[in-house]
Structures are given as C-alpha cells and as structure tokens.
Amino acid sequence: LTRNTLNYLTLDPEHHSIRRRPRPLPSHHQLFLPASCPQSIVHLVNNSIAMLPMIHKSTMRLALQRAISTKSRHLSSAPAAATATSTINFPSYLLATPSTEITQFPSGLRVASETMLGANTATVGVWIDAGSRYETIHNNGAAHFLEHMAFKGTSKRTQYQLEVEIENMGGHLNAYTSREQTVYFAKVFKKDVPRAMDILADILLRSKLEPNAVNRERDVILREMKEVNKHNEELVLDHLHATAFQGSGLGRTILGPEQNIKSLTKGDLREYIDTHYLAPQMVIAGAGAVDHQELCDLADHYFGGLKTELNEKEKKSDAVCLDKGTFVGSDVRIHFKSDTMAHMSLAYEGASWTSEYAYPLMILQTLIGSFDRAAGKNVTSQLCYDVAVNELANSISTFNTCYKDTGLFGLYAVAEREKVHDLITCVATNLAQVVNTITEEDVERAKIALKATMLMGLDGNTNVCEDIGRQLLTYGRRLTPAEIFQRIEEMTVEDVRAAAYKVFHDKDHAMAAVGGIEGLPSYEWIRNNTY
Questions:
Q1: Using CA atoms, how far apart are residues 323 and 339, in angstroms rounded to an integer?
Q2: Which of 5, 112, 231, 508 is positioned for an S-S bond with 50, CB 3.0–4.6 A?
Q3: Is 440 one of the annotated active-site residues of the chain?
Q4: pLDDT tens digits for 441-499?
Q5: Which of 114, 180, 217, 349 is catalytic?
Q6: Which one of 147, 349, 356, 466 is the catalytic residue?
Q7: Backbone dihedral region for residue 209 (phi beyond 0: left; psi -120 to 50: alpha; all else: beta)
Q8: Residue 167 is a catalytic residue
Q9: Quick one: average pLDDT of 509-528?
Q10: C-alpha 241: how far from its chain's center?
C-alpha cells in the first residue's frame, strides 16, 4: 500500500465522511463513515491507497463497512451501504433483485449463486480464467480444441453415454471459449443439479483425450475455421485484434492457426489443463432453482481436489503466457478486386473492465449507436444520421470490448466499394467532433438505453449465471443491478466527453479492412483527420 493518500483524501467533519479531492473519477468512490467511526479506522483510510482501480476501491469500502458495522454485510450489498446518502431513487423491481451468495474455499475456488424463487430449472457452470490470450505460439488453439474434446468421452462415460444422459434429463450442455475465459455450463431441472455438476466435473477433469478422437476432431475444427472465415465480421475482427495487439496473446485467434490444429497432441492438451485449470482461476456459478449450500457441497465434492498453484517447472513451461496486451497503432488491408463490398473495422485503445473510463465508454458506445439500412434511418447520433441520410453504408455499429488490462473501442461498417472513401471521411469528421458535440440530452438518452440493455441481458437463468461467472472473474465480485444503475446514473456529460477525448484525441488507431477497399484512405490520412 502506498502512503500518499493524504494528497487525495480529506475528512469532512460536518458530514463525518471521507471524500476525495476533485479527481476525474465518479462519486461512487467516496467513503462514508459515521460520526462514531473509531480514529483507528480514519487513520487506516488516511494511510491506504489513493488511486486504485475501481474493484480495489470497492474492496476497501467493504472492509470499512465490516469494521464499523454491528453485523457483516454481503459483498454484493457493500457498495449500496457505502453510498447510502445517494439521492437516487431505485425502482422497486431493482431493489427486489435476489442477492448473490459467494463462498470462497481455502483452495481459492469460488462458488457463487443466485436463487430465484419459483424457478423450476437451473443453470450451473464453470467459468475458467483461461482463454486464447493465455496460450503461446506453440499451443494457440488448445482451449478451443479442449472445448471440442470435452464431449468426446471421459473415464466414466463414453460419448454416447454422455449424450444419452443429458438427453434423458431434458438438459442442455454447452461450452464456449473467448480470449480471456473458457466456460462450460448445463441447463437442467432443479432435481438434476447434482448430476449436472457430476457431468461438468467429469468432462472438465477426466476427458480421455484419446489420440483417435483428437485426430478426428482436427477435421471438424478445420471445417469450422473455414466457416468462420466466410463470416466477414468475424474475419475482420480477428484481423483487427491481430494488428492492434500484435506480438501478444490478445492478438492470437481463438481457433488457433491451421498448423497448430493439425499438430496439437494429447500431451499438449493435458499440459494446458494442468497449467490453467487451477482452483483460484475457476468459479462455479449457478442461477435459478439452486441452493447455495448444496452447490458449495457439490463443488467441494467434485472440484475439491484441484491444484492451487503451479510448481516452478510448470511456471517456466511453454504452456504459460501472461504477457500484457499492448495496443499498437497499425492496420491490415486485404483487397479482393472481385468483391463489390468492403468490410472495415476502425478501433482505438479502450478501457479495461475496472478502468474509471469503463462506464463512460459504455455510455459513449450507446450514444454513437448503430445504423442498418434494413431497419431504417437512425438519428440517435450525428454519425449514424450522416451515414443514413447520405447512404454511405449498408450498416455501421459501435463496439466496446473490455479485457483485463486494456480494451478496444471502435466501429464496424459494411459499405459498397465506391462509397468507402466518403464513409471514412464521414467517420473521421464525426470522431474528431464528438468531444464537443455531446450534449446532456444525448447522455441522458444513452443512460436510459444502457440501463434497458443491462436489464434485458439478465432475462433468464442462463444469462444471470453468465453474468455471475464473468463478473467474479473480471471484478472479483458481483455488481448488483442497483449498483450498476447508480454507476450509470452518476456519469455526467463531462465524464463522457473526457472518455471520448482520451480515446480519440490525437491517438493512434488500428484498422482491419477486407474486400473492395481500393478507395480506403491511407493510415496517415485517417490518423491526421480524426482529431
């Protein structure tokens, strides 16, 4: 801990609260203490960290609340208690949201669940802090390969027995791999939760990985790669990551290169499991008709034997990659003369999950919005309006992708080859002016839309379970809908402008473009015309 906090924190004796001096951070970082607060606690605060990422500030608030309260508060309710003086009136449906119970075992394994009254089905799953960014050049594609192999038989069940058991339960078993996470989950009836946990542990920890099955699956993944490459948006975004984060794990594709798919062996896959499937890197999440204590007992029974850390030899192996995602201004252009359409993505370095700019950029993404010619003209932003009125693109959308230590904020567009130059000129002009053109009305409208999107994303057991698992891996805790609403509500037009300025003003960009792109301006032209 640094001892520089006195430069940033002051004690307000009238309101008995510890407040930050003016900084470019939202007010939810204020720490409110009652008049009866012991001086030892005040001294602790004055000698603690001044500038921490958002999640560590929340942890500090939680510790303080526990120190001065007569009863312990749950992690998910701590932020609400810490900002009790807020004037925001939450809707009743928001306050009635079920709480998320969290238990951490001595091994580091975390179990989190949200019980929904009246639910008859449940979603349970395992969220693993391991994805393609943690692979090396030699084993890139291993996480996705394992996702395929998990359903091909274990030491307890053959592939046929696994399929029949899930089908007879009326359940659904699925998995996916991203750049930072690997997820396996099951949707079942309430009575089948123990069997679902048994199956999840079985496919994760006891897959047979038979050489013949591995060889058969190579062809399946290669066919999948061909299908992915036919989807221009996925292809362009893969190229965008490759150029924006060149030389680091974030720049590698999830499927891996073709030569790796053809050469990965059972030993490589087993080494990846032993290296990354550690207790501290895993979260067991459940939502719906689940009992938290039962889920903890099942997790202890089936996952209690997980390793907690790597030995020195394993830390130095080729299976471990923990490099930082460093953004590089660059572009990649793949020109097809026969293609009448251009698919382009222009991006800037965004914010990490815990950055102070994370929420302002969410609002900015919503504010800029999207346009699709098939859906009609969109006038929610000047950029979309200009594109729609002048028919510069078939579609254009804004994306805001967060990672642990960085992010990508940008636009993806599809346009006719003759309109590429005009489209990029329009985009560059609007990005250069966005800092000065954002109004309070725009921000308020974007806040409402963002809140609606957030709530709609929590419809159903599976979505809630996904939210729990992802948040515990990214934030270390679950943010309640009320806290998210408050964070959104506290954002001001100045916050959003500051985020836009940080992302766009005089900053290098990354671009990937495929198709009929002969009219695409040079990198230098775009760089000089976006601020």
A1: 37
A2: 5
A3: no
A4: 999 999 999 999 999 999 899 999 999 999 999 999 999 999 999 999 999 999 999 99
A5: 217
A6: 147
A7: left
A8: no
A9: 95
A10: 15
